[in-house]
């Protein structure tokens, strides 16, 4: 079952249970998935669907930071609720140990020796991670290992 099908099934259940917030969030996700399908002019692959879900999660995280900076805890709480729901559809994140191993391999493959080579390492590492970890986490580990 694709992510889109799973979200549509969950939307039907949420509508039957009259869960307003959940219905609104799931409809937003379905709309984003449809927009991406139209943009690409083809059916979405699992990787495409995960990318859309990750983008939606990142948007919520950015909104939470912005609302907290503005002192709007009520809006931040609403975004956190949406984020929690979106995260239920995302694959599990890699552990720090597994991520460190991937970055070490990327450093060895790219022959990086200094912080100036960070771009090469990031490109290799992000391909290996393939949506299973946030870019900020990868970047922090790369900086730590390269001594930046």
Structure in a nutshell:
With 148 residues, this protein is an all-alpha fold. The chain has seven helices and no strands. Helices cover 76% and strands 0% of the residues.
Fold and architecture overview:
Helix 2 packs across helix 4, helix 5 (96-110) crosses helix 6 (118-129) and helix 5 packs across helix 7 (135-146). This protein has helices at 3-16, 20-40, 46-69, 73-87, 96-110, 118-129, 135-146. It has two domains: 3-87, Uncharacterised protein YqeY/AIM41, N-terminal domain (Hypothetical Protein Yqey, Chain: A, domain1), CATH 1.10.1510; 96-146, Arc Repressor Mutant, subunit A (Orthogonal Bundle). It is built from seven helices and no strands. The protein starts with a helix and ends with a helix. The protein is mainly α and 148 residues long. Helices cover 76% and strands 0% of the residues. It is globular, with a radius of gyration of 18 Å.
Strand and helix layout:
Layout: H1 3-16, H2 20-40, H3 46-69, H4 73-87, H5 96-110, H6 118-129, H7 135-146
Helix pairs in contact: 1-2, 2-3, 2-4, 3-4, 5-6, 5-7, 6-7
Average pLDDT for all residues: 89
What is the CATH topology descriptor of the largest domain?
Answer: Hypothetical Protein Yqey, Chain: A, domain1
CATH homologous superfamily annotation of the largest domain: Uncharacterised protein YqeY/AIM41, N-terminal domain
Shape: globular
Please tally the β strands and state the result. Answer: 0
Helix-strand pattern = HHHHHHH
What is the rounded Rg? Answer: 18 Å
Instruction: Please mark out the parts with pLDDT under 50 across 5 or more consecutive residues, or reply none.
Output: none
The structural domain count equals: 2
Distance between the termini: 43 Å
CATH top level of the largest domain? Mainly Alpha
Share of residues in helices: over 70%
Main sheet attributes: strand count, strand direction, barrel closure: none
Can you count the helices?
A: 7
Q: What CATH architecture label of the largest domain applies?
A: Orthogonal Bundle
| β-sheet strand percentage | under 5%
Q: Report the structural category.
A: mainly alpha
